């Protein structure tokens, strides 16, 4: 019988993405072997995660609050092209795209496709539609089509279904919709794509 305290830790880890009960058990017993200071440092960093990281109200990416900033650094950056929105499933998908250095627009984190397809239109997507409408209102009519939404979703079956779902919702807004996943190998998750592949996929989006 696993002691209650260890079981409580295992239960927490089992809820993490990609972690099953066996891995959760391994992690819990690994933590048990750490020194008290290492465990304290780990728990402090988890508390700081909730205290210092806020979700950007524009793009839904997490950002570190150091002063009175209201949005993430990308949304706050005046040089970023606000009419170019790259839609990603996970926040961790932003970094590899940023590393290519060729994307000058902004992002929108919509959440995992698998979750989304089961439910009604999620808040992140409703927010994306509102965000586009807001930008459109500030543009003269002839420039409204210059808004580009790049669907940078995983090149998986779920990613494809998700892209179709978002495209259908975006169509009435008459924006230019491009897809990045086509340049990625089938089954590829964006997060793990190498830089050259990503640059190619970004440059050849259609
Ligand atoms: Zn943002």
TrEMBL record:
UniProt entry keywords in alphabetical sequence: DNA damage, DNA recombination, DNA repair, Metal-binding, Zinc, Zinc-finger
Pfam (any one): RecR_C
SUPFAM superfamilies listed in its UniProt record: Recombination protein RecR
Gene3D superfamilies: 3.40.1360.10, RecR Domain 1 (1.10.8.420)
GO molecular function (one): DNA binding
Domain Toprim: 83-185
Any one of the GO BP annotations: DNA recombination
The family this protein is said to belong to: Belongs to the RecR family.
Record NCBIfam families: recR
Role: May play a role in DNA repair. It seems to be involved in an RecBC-independent recombinational process of DNA repair. It may act with RecF and RecO.
Record-given protein name: Recombination protein RecR
Phylogenetic lineage: Bacteria, Candidatus Azamiibacteriota
